Amino acid sequence: MNSFGNNFCITLFGESHGSCVGCVIDGIPSGFSPDFEAIDSDLLRRSPRAAAFSTSRQETDSYEILSGLYRGTTCGTPLTVIFPNKDSRPGDYAFTAPRPSHADLAAFEKYGECCDLRGGGAFSGRLTAPLVFAGAVAKQILSGKGVSIASHICSVLDIADQPFDPVSNELPQLDPMFPLVEASVRRPLEALFDELRASGDSVGAVAECKIVSLPAGIGEPFFDSVESVLSHLLFSIPGVHAVEFGEGFGFGKLRGSQANDPIIPDRRTATNRSGGINGGISNGMPIVFRAAFRPVPSIAVEQDSIDLKSGEAVKLTITGRHDVCILPRGLAAVEAAAAIGILDLLMQDKGRKL
Q1: What are phi and psi of 120, to 5 degrees?
Q2: pLDDT tens, position by position, 4-41
Q3: Sign of CA dihedral 103, 137, 24, 49
Q4: Secondary structure (3-state) at 212
Q5: pTM of the entire structure?
Q6: Which of the listed CATH numbers 3.60.150.10, 3.90.740.10, 3.40.50.720, 3.40.50.300 matches domain 3-349?
C-alpha cells in the first residue's frame, strides 16, 4: 500500500519520470489555513541545488492543489496536491541491467516488465516532495500545539557534528539549508563532497532529529508505539536503512545502572537515554532519534550486474544526475516523517480533535 495513517492519512502517487508525483492528505481539520511560505521553505530544503552533494536535476518543486482548499482554508475533505515533473530525462534510463542496490531488480521480480524503472520510478526520492508537503502541513498543526521538530547532519563517515542536547526542550538555531549544531563541521563536509563528486562515488550519512514539547502519554503499547509509528514512516524514505531512539544500539554496551534515566521531582528525567519514550509512550522528555542513510547507489563507477533479458553478466556504469550524499536534502523528509507520525498519534489520543 502507498497509504499511511489512521487519523492524519496520506497517500503518495506518481513516478520519478512520469508526468507528476503527488499526495492525498485526509484528516486535516476544516478551517485550517496553511502557511504556504513555510511549506515552500521546507520544499526548498528538499529540492536539488547548486552544491557538491546534490543532483543537478533541477525540479522547482512547484505544485498545484486540486482539492480540499477553499478561500485559503481547508474544507475537511481530502487535500490533493500534484508536483509536475518538469526536468525529467527518461532517456538517461534506457537500460536493461538493474542498478546494484537500487530497487530495480526487486521491482522487476515483483511487477515484471510493466514496472517503470526510470529514475527509480515509484521508489525514487522524487516521491519525497509530496511527503515533505504533507509533513510541512503536519508541522504547522503541531506548532499550533507547541510541538517543534528539528534535525541536523549527525555524521558523514568519520566527520561528526555535536549531538542535540537530549534533555533540553530548546532547539538550537540551525542553517536550514545545511543544518549543523557546530558550524565549523561544514568545511570538512564540503571538502569530502567535492572529493566524492570528482571520483564519481557517494557516501552515507546519519541524521539526528529532536521533537520537543510533546506531552507525556502519546502513543500506544506495542504496534502503535511512538517508535513503531515513526520507524514505519522513516523506513519509507528511500535510502534509510537504520533507525535508533535515544541511546539506541549503544544500549548493548551498557549496564542497567548506566542505562536507566533517574526520575526527578518535576516528573522529568535527569538524563534521556530512552529518547523520550518508555513502553512505546512519550514520557514528556524530548523525542530523540537517528536515521542512517545508505550511500546513494547511483555512482559513476563500473559495477557488476546482469542483463534482465538474457540473464548474462554485464558491466554497468550509471549515467544521469545523482546526489553524492542524500544529506542535507534528506533532513526535510526525516522531519516530515516525524511530523506525520506524531500528528497521527496525537489525533488518535485526542479522538481526531485538536
Answers
A1: 95, -10
A2: 999 999 999 999 888 899 999 999 999 999 999 999 99
A3: negative
A4: strand
A5: 0.92
A6: 3.60.150.10
